[in-house]
Amino acid sequence: MPATAADARALLLDSFHAAVAAADPLRIVADHLPSPQAGGRTLVVGAGKAAASMALAVERAYASQNSAVQLDGLVVTRYAHGLPTEHVRVIEAGHPVPDEAGERAAAEILARAGELGPDDRLIVLVSGGGSSLLSLPAEGIGMADLKATTQELLRCGAPITDMNIVRKHLSRIQGGHLARACRAPVTTLIVSDVAGDDPSAIASGPTVPDASTYADALAVLRRYGAVVPPVVQAYLERGARGEVAETPKPGDPLFARVENRVIATAHGSLMAAADHFRARGIQPVVLGDTVTGEAQEVARVYAALVREIRAYNAPFAVPVVLISGGECTVTLPQGNGAAAGKPRGGRCSEFLLSLALELDGVDNVYAIAADTDGIDGSEDNAGALLDPSTLARAQAAGASARARLDAHDAWGLFDAAGDLVVTGPTRTNVNDYRAILIL
User: Fold this and answer.
1) pLDDT (tens digit, 9 = 90+) per residue, 357-370?
2) Which domain holds residue 310?
3) For a FRET experiment, which of 118, 244, 311, 332 has its CA 20 to 30 Å from that of 112?
4) Does residue 319 have a cis peptide bond before it, meaning omega lies within 30 degrees of 0?
5) How many domains does the chain have?
6) 310, part of any domain
């Protein structure tokens, strides 16, 4: 049990680190690798925020087995997320908006996978962020068009699963196309960052059958009022008319030689955090790993539950911690503008600032909200901490909580309060982590 505010904050931080550690590729990848290939080539490719650490884990695992396997390959990860590797080349590229570095890497991955034969093996390392990092636009779609489409979907607040339906149908490598291009057996190891852990939605499923259609992609654009470049709209409409080949579907025989293994999930990380609190005499209540919705609205719902617990010691008795994962959204005004300047921060810090305003004046409540990849939105922090003095400290530093929330500048508020959580890239990603400690 924490005795002071500093203890409570330290406990929350430690719980976040426990959640991240449960999804650390250097700890978990080795147990899921296929046996070394007897003869033939082994090509390792991949994309995502965890790609570099997954590639390093593969190298270490086969080296520890004194394996004769000759590894080769390349993976693409976000800028500043690379690691030194010996056999698998690491390329850094743009995220969340794709860029030409990712396009070149994706083209090379597709070409090299296509060179493999039945006696070779392809190991694919997939993690969150791969949809933008592994961007190879469909024929007739330029990278500028793909960038504009991604930016518009982000602005509209489209959930990642809906975004990926669109991106799969604008890609030559996602939506099962990588598996289609390869004749070798394929083993894909997946670190999940999506609610429900659907492999087809993670990095837009390069080796997974895709049940969605061009018509579904058009429906996503309509649902969120997304205005995309005319060439993108026209391409999707051609696909819906059957003039462009669909992505490989469930039941396609090509997937008989493909194995997709989800090796890390948000649920596993939340359970690790729950164990951390339980060992310290605090009852953990896991509210789910699939929480979605507007960050501010989700915070209001959680605040109502916290007030009920503080007032009536029900439905859970204190001390208790409410733990959840998933991915909220932040919908920005047209043009990315905001009342008091450029938005700063991300969904975790926005959730926490909304929670702070809803709970202003409620004692003995502490919270953390942070992205397990170490980056929350536009800045370099993973998220932020909240304690009963946060808003007062921010106000003393000249930061108005309501004005900052209206401006989508949660980063500015928590920076003024000294409550940012900065970890640097964790090189994994199982989505957001939220814990509200009620003492």
Assistant:
1) 999 999 999 999 99
2) 5-20+267-438
3) 244
4) yes
5) 2
6) yes
Please indicate, yes or no, whether residues 193 and 300 belong to a single structural domain of this protein.
Answer: no
User: In 287-309, which positions are buried (b, 16+ CB within 10 angstroms) versus exposed (e)?
Assistant: bebbbbbbbbebbeebbebbeeb
Instruction: Answer with the residue of higher pLDDT: 423 or 339.
Output: 423
Last-in-domain residue among 264, 296, 331: 264
Say which CATH number the domain at 422 has. Answer: 3.40.1480.10
At 141, list the tokens. 């779609």
Query: Can you give the CATH number for the domain in which 88 is found?
Result: 3.40.50.10180
Tens of pLDDT, residues 112-135 = 999 999 999 999 999 999 999 999
- Find out whether 113 and 85 touch, Cβ atoms under 8 Å: no
CA 9 to chain centre: 25
pTM of the model: 0.91
* Cis ω for the linkage preceding 248 (within 30 of 0): no
Helix H or strand E segment including 71? strand 71-78
**Cα distance between residue 373 and residue 20, in whole Å:** 8
The pLDDT value recorded for residue 88 is 97
- Helices vs. strands in the chain: H and E counts, helices first: 16, 13
Helix (H, G, I), strand (E, B) or coil at 18: helix
CA neighbours within 13 Å on the CB side: how many for 345? 35
- Per-residue pLDDT, 160: 86
283 secondary structure, DSSP code: E
